[in-house]
Sequence to fold (294 residues):
Amino acid sequence: MKLPQTLKAISVALEQCLRRAGVDTPAQDARYMISKRAGLTWAQSIASPDLVLAADVIKALEQDAEAVLAGKPLSRIYGERAFWGRDFAISEHTLDPRADTETLVDISLKRFSGAGAGLNILDLGTGSGCILLTLLAELAEIEKAHGVGVDLSQSALQTARDNAIRFALADRVAFVCGHWGDSLSGGFDLVVSNPPYIANQIIPGLAEKVRKYDPILALNGGDDGLKAYRIIFLQLAYLLKTGGLALFEIGYDQAEALMRLSGESGFHNTRVHLDSGGLPRVLEITRTEPSGDK
Ligand SMILES: C[S@@+](CC[C@H](N)C(=O)[O-])C[C@H]1O[C@@H](n2cnc3c(N)ncnc32)[C@H](O)[C@@H]1O
Fold:
């Protein structure tokens, strides 16, 4: 693809290209691409429509546009994704954080803002660290929360650590490589998790941008999509303090099965929250008794 040379003309051409690629917000994304490659703020790019961009910048934008037309998400091209107002680094080993996951963050903040100092948070399957680091940043003022992020992927954890440094949170977080809560003892006020929950026979039919760019470890929830929940629900009995809360992202059609599973795991104080589209998205479990609430 050949782009023109001036800012305004490049912006129009990129917008057309993004629209052709089926992107939802082409004008916004064209501005984002220019800001990434030319280092211009939104205001600068509006104020200087006749600015001629350097040849190497135009070349890079042409390659990016080709990649978008071939189906590559912008987040994978630039290695970052905005989540709760912060730009998180992502890698081929991390899930590309989804806007849906902000529902879990929203509920966590509503439950714990103003709860007092010393909150201890555990994030199982932390990936880029987007959930845990957002909570630590947002709960910074009063609570001075601290947390542990667990993942089976060492490479994902490296990205989470980079993000902790990026947001000046490294002194309040520890990242541990392991299988869910296996290597941890308890004492958490809040356990959050967005585990892999896609049933394995669904995976071949997922959109190409998911199948091709999100790591399989972040997607595959076993034969029925519930494999990780089965393990983690049992671990909650020792991970959570009495009175502690666990919040899980769930698939839109998994609420009933997971309510049943949490009951079978000894937790009866459970509820489901809907996302902004009205779909079941978060399962909330409260530990009310010292040894699970049987
Ligand atoms: C759906 S992704 C969620 C990532 C991130 N929390 C987010 O919301 O964007 C699930 C994460 O669980 C991790 N994972 C998969 N199996 C695991 C296991 N047995 N123990 C710990 N983490 C695991 C994956 O590597 C992946 O980072």
Remarks:
- Residues 95, 97, 101, 125-128, 130-131, 150-153, 156, 179-180, 194-196, 217-218 surround S-adenosylmethionine (CB under 6 Å).
- The chain has two domains: 7-71, 81-286.
- The CA atoms of residues 58 and 159 lie 29 Å apart.
- Residues 81-286 form a domain with the Rossmann fold fold (CATH 3.40.50.150).
